Amino acid sequence: MKTDVKTLLLGAAIGSALFLGYSFRAQPVPQAYTYRQFSTIESVVPGGLGRSRVISSDEKDQTVEKDLLNFYSMTGINFKNVANNDRLIVETINQFVSEGWELHTVTTGVNDSGGGQGGGGGTGIFITRYLFRKPI
After folding, report:
1. Which of 18, 64, 89, 123 could form an S-S bond across to 113 if both were Cys, CB 3.0 to 4.6 Å?
2. Confidence check: pLDDT of 116 > 60
3. Which pLDDT value is given to residue 50?
4. Phi and psi of 64, rounded to 5°?
C-alpha cells in the first residue's frame, strides 16, 4: 500500500509541475503585418476594344497603372496577348517580392455585362486581386 501512495503522490507532483509550467509560459505575440495590393482587370470585349490594366498604389498612395493587352482581337482569342499579360503580372509579383513583400492571398472574380451565358453583349471583365504582406 505504501508503494501505491508514493506512486500516486509522485504522479500528482509531476502532473502539477507540468500544468504549472505550461500555464505560466509566455504567450506568443502575433506577428503584425502591413499590407499592399495590386489588381489586374482584363477585358473580354471582342475586337480588342476593351481596356485591361494592372492597377496598384505606390508608397505615396499614387495610383500606378500598367497597360495589359486585350484577350480578344478581331479574329478571337489572342494567345500572344494572354502570354504577354501573364509575363507582366509575374514581373509585378516578382517586383513586390524583391521589395520584401510576401504574396498572401489571390482573389478572382468575373463580371459578365452581357447577362451571362447566351445573354448577348459579349462584354465583361476578369479581375484578380493580389494581396501582399510584410512584417512590421
Report:
1. 123
2. no
3. 74
4. -120, 125
Q: How far apart are CA 39 and CA 57, in angstroms?
A: 10
Cα distances from 130 to residues 6, 92, 107, in angstroms, run 62, 10, 7
pLDDT number for residue 114: 62
Q: Where are the alpha helices (DSSP H) in the chain?
A: 2-23, 79-98
Cα separations in angstroms, 71 against 7, 90, 97, 126: 76, 17, 27, 10
The percent helix, strand, coil of the chain (3-state, each to 5) is: 35, 35, 30
- Grid cell digits, residue 126: 476578369
Q: What is the pLDDT of residues 97-115, one digit of tens each?
A: 999 999 999 999 988 776 5
Select from 32, 50, 53 the least CA-distant residue to 41. 53
